[in-house]
Amino acid sequence: MSGPVVPLASTAQGPCEPSPGSGPLPVSAAASDPPAPSSSVPAGGREPSASGLPPAVTPQLGDHDQGGLPNCVPKVGMTFNSENEAYDFYNSYARNVGFSIRKNHANTRADGSLCSKYFLCSNEGQPVASTTQPGRKKRSSTRSDCKARLQFYISQEGIWTVQKVELDHNHYLVSPDKSHMLRSQRRLTPSYQQIVNEMRQEGITAADMQRVFRQWSRGAENVHLLKKDTQRKYLQPSYAQKLLEYLKNKQTKNPSFFYAVQLNDDGRIANFFWTDCQAIVDYACFGDVVSFDTTFETNKFEMPFAPFVGTNHHKQPILFGASLIYDESSESFNWLFQTFLMAMSGKQPATIFTDPSAEIIKSVRLVFPNSSHRLCLRHICHNAVKHLNHVICNHPEFLSDFKRRIYEERSVTFFDLKWKELVNAYNLDGNDWMNNLYAMREKWAAVYSRDSFYADMMTIQNAEGTSDALKNFRRKLCLPEFLEEYEKCITSFRQNELEADYNSRQTSPVPYVPDLPMLKTAAESYTRNLYSHFEEEFKKLFTLSCSLLSQDRTISTYKLTPLNSEEEAYVVFNSEDTTVSCSCRMYECTGMLCKHALRVLNYSNIFTFPSHYVYKRWTKYAKAGLFGCRNNSQSGNGSSMLRCACISQKMHSVALRYSMSEKALQFLESGVDKLTCEVENLLSHINLNGNGNDTGQSSGFCNGAMAESLGHSESMYSEGA
């Protein structure tokens, strides 16, 4: 600690002295003004203004800035009541002159109290010596050893007094039209910070945030955020090497680990995809619905992290695979989706949810022709914030009304009616984004989703739960942090599933009506979470009136109407085979019987749960049994790849299923060894006889590394990128 600092004795008041009780404005000392900047300084003025206006002069005493703070030139003897007031004064002066400031070292007394502190120009100090590798581009620096600063003495009572002033700068000062870009000026108020945090959690990029704030603040000069560079860049060679090493190490520890990389025409690594055996087994069981999200950013180059996410039998999010993609082009998505299909033995999901991107829509149509493609409603809400922020500013309730409309599922007619009411209420008749969104309504509106199974992934609760589970990936992460976060995330997902499995199998819920066979069967079959949802739906049947419309032998048609509501549903019931079909199509979409079907079964004195409506996907033992390959009809080299992946998947599922029994694993291992010898013997006979196309050569793809360019594919060698 340096020697004690003695405050100036003079406290004569100058022109900027506040009146009594007016607040802690600065007080001028009797000392004269500091000298003007030296002529030897190369940056004695501002840089040229973009507007062509002459440079601004140093503010005079009595002027005030936009925030109402006095634009006094700092003078020795000025006093302030706190550090924040002193900082705000100097920062206000810095904005008007055209430089950025930062806090520097402080001195303390023997009792630990602060006695002096410096506020410096941000260009103070020497550039830091570069530690980059030879050939790497050096990082730019703003340091020019500028000596401009304020030194404060802090009394025991906490009064901050200016003790020393240096106003000379040795660099160009920023012109007025750029002063809002200075780092010390980009401080967010708590309210703005809260908005920024919420937008980040929702996946809104910094560029879109700045556009919203620019409109809210009526000008870019009032925005406290800079627009980020949105240009996609390749992963740095060192990061690419680290990622390849990570993937290879995972495969070394677990040979079933699968990864693939895509090269561009220049030989650079553009895209990554990886998954493991557990994820492949999960997909075989729960891969009927997949969500593909590209709104995550993982590093300073904003290279999107795009996970394939599903939902398990506990309605918990699960990861089927992960990818890092260079750009969001149709070529990248084509490669990624095809690689994903190969890893998953060619099984296409029943429904896939994606961002509303034209490139993704095109690729899904090409690679997943048998899947129902839906647009994620959460992403549509995010886009509404971007495109309709002027409406949200004037009408904060708009977003809630908008969400109610897009999740409306009673009927197409009712949806159209409510949509028109929304458009008219907020004068959006001529809004292009709303018109284009409505034209695509069959891909996103909940009321149009009744023809596909979506496993409850369209609900607000599921979307928010998945977003919350992956929220840490919405932060800017360097690659090591990202890989660490990925490991934590996938471990957490699987631990949550294990705990839910334990609770579902070792404990039993108490049914709403304990002696009712239907509820007892549901409690014994469903997982705890699913049973809770089923019981809530069961309770709603008592709010429905049921009337018979027609009957033809064993087939009856019923009309169901809720109390105090005009909403109607129609149910067809076949008493011969106990099948029931409802116009709301809840069972077809989610795999759980709706309140309308339950009401008809109750009305028809069916009190036991029909076994054919206990959907195995939602049961406690959803993963029981082996998972087979569904695509056996293809031919050619692609068929060999898929069959290889299929066989691998079968063997891994068997090993995982019996991993807790040492005796079973020994029996399985000896059987595999015996089978391997028989296959090698078969291959030797084929090669000796020169029979056909079976040469025994590797296809270059089987749970290993694959590098594929836009026009060709080649093996990725162990040397890395």
UniProtKB/TrEMBL annotation:
The SWIM-type domain, residue ranges: 570-605
Region annotation (Disordered) ranges: 1-70
One GO MF term attached to the UniProt entry: zinc ion binding
Record-linked Pfam families: FAR1, MULE, SWIM
InterPro entries: FAR1_DNA_bnd_dom, MULE_transposase_dom, Znf_PMZ, Znf_SWIM
Keywords: Metal-binding, Zinc, Zinc-finger
Compositionally skewed regions (Low complexity) per UniProt: 26-43
UniProt organism field: Oryza sativa subsp. indica (Rice)
Record's protein name: SWIM-type domain-containing protein
Protein's UniProt keywords contain Zinc: yes
Cross-referenced PROSITE patterns: ZF_SWIM
